[in-house]
Write a structure and sequence with these properties.
Distance between the termini: 5 Å
Strand content: 25-35%
Order of helices and strands: EEEEHHHE
Number of strands: 5
Mean pLDDT: 93
Shape: globular
Low-confidence stretches: none
Radius of gyration: 13 Å
């Protein structure tokens, strides 16, 4: 099964209510909101489907289709920018 994990070269912290990431090798900074932080905190060791399920539980008033689309897009972006990695377990 394919699982997500945080890139070891990324550090993060909360600054003024937002989560800020720094990819130390690339020298790039990224910023996200509370939903992005939930995805980040939930992702390691889980599949995309498991992360989607967790976000659906946290935001029951949002349609599952929208959560699926938005979470998948955000995870794809985290992978593309090198913040998350996909590993086979």
């Amino acid at each position: 099964m394919r699982k997500l994990r945080r890139n070891e070269d990324v550090i993060w912290d909360e600054v003024d209510g937002a989560t800020v990431f720094c990819h130390t090798r690339a020298g790039a900074f990224f910023r996200t909101n509370e939903v992005g932080r939930l995805i980040w905190e939930t992702a390691t060791g889980r599949s995309v489907e498991e992360v989607v399920k967790r976000v659906c539980e946290a935001y029951p008033n949002v349609s599952p289709d929208r959560v699926q689309r938005d979470v998948t897009d955000f995870i794809d972006e985290l992978i593309r920018t090198g913040l998350l990695e996909v590993v086979d377990e």
